[in-house]
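Supplementary Methods, section 5.1.

A reviewer requested that the exact input to the structure prediction be made available. We therefore reproduce it here, unchanged from the version used in the analyses.
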Amino acid sequence: QVQLVESGGGLVRPGGSLRLSCTASGITLGGYAIGWFRQAPGKEREWISCISEKGDSTQYVDSVQGRFTVSRDNARTTAYLQMNNLEPEDTAVYYCRATYYSLDYWGQGTQVFVSS
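The structure derived from this sequence is encoded token-by-token as follows.
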């Protein structure tokens, strides 16, 4: 059974940092592209970042560019999202997604709450 599990969310003050992890079981992440998404209360889920299967290419939505960094450790079947200088607008449930051709797996999400 394939599972993706996000962790590392929590409550943080504006300007703080969190590092989210996305750990896979049942598959080896090598070969899968990884995407990070988030869904704020009352809003649709939005794509925020992705990293290629080899980790040599990354992309970010403008609102997190320069503050968030995506990375991966294929040997540990884990992907990461380092989030710095967090803002209240970053409050959301964060999800990771692993895709390989028609294979498509989502995690259950981890809550990030940015508030003073």
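The chain has a mean pLDDT of 95. These observations are discussed further in the main text.
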